[in-house]
Known about the structure:
CATH topology of the largest domain: Tetracycline Repressor, domain 2
Number of domains: 2
Protein name: TetR/AcrR family transcriptional regulator
CATH class of the largest domain: Mainly Alpha
Pfam families: TetR_N
Domain HTH tetR-type: 15-73
Keywords: DNA-binding, Transcription, Transcription regulation
DNA-binding region: 36-55
Amino acid sequence: xxxxxxxxxxxxxxxxxxxxxxxxxxxxxxxxxxxxxxxxxxxxxxxxxxxxxxxxxxxxxxxxxxxxxxxxxxxxxxxxxxxxxxxxxxxxxxxxxxxxxxxxxxxxxxxxxxxxxxxxxxxxxxxxxxxxxxxxxxxxxxxxxxxxxxxxxxxxxxxxxxxxxxxxxxxxxxxxxxxxxxxxxxxxxxxx
Length: 192
């Protein structure tokens, strides 16, 4: 992690430099996973000293990147009001939000996780919350009562992943979210 200084709240300028470093790390490492801390510092517009002051070593930076991205993903789920919005509305909002975060942080969210890391814990909580939203949708008769909700979650995740990897022709997140939810709930069969 970021060392002893992580326990102390960061000043606003320090938060900005950490954010700039993480955003640069996402861009640089997505293009070259072997990029050095110096390359990331240059892309972030900070000195090597600054990057090393915030992150003791490259692995600490990578772990912070994964944690930051997972936190943003968790916030995207929260912003979709999974517990209070009608299930279909929550599913759409969450999906659109997740598409935006995953599109911006694809490298960080694709990193292998240490099962004991904060990022892994956040991902497990997101999966649990996803199943809870799917259960609400099932209770609202949007999903078959016999459906295995963990399987539905896995299919949903696959649809999101394919949407991000496919050619979307500049389709916005709301339109993609509608396609994902429609495919999840109705499949590809003929419509009445």
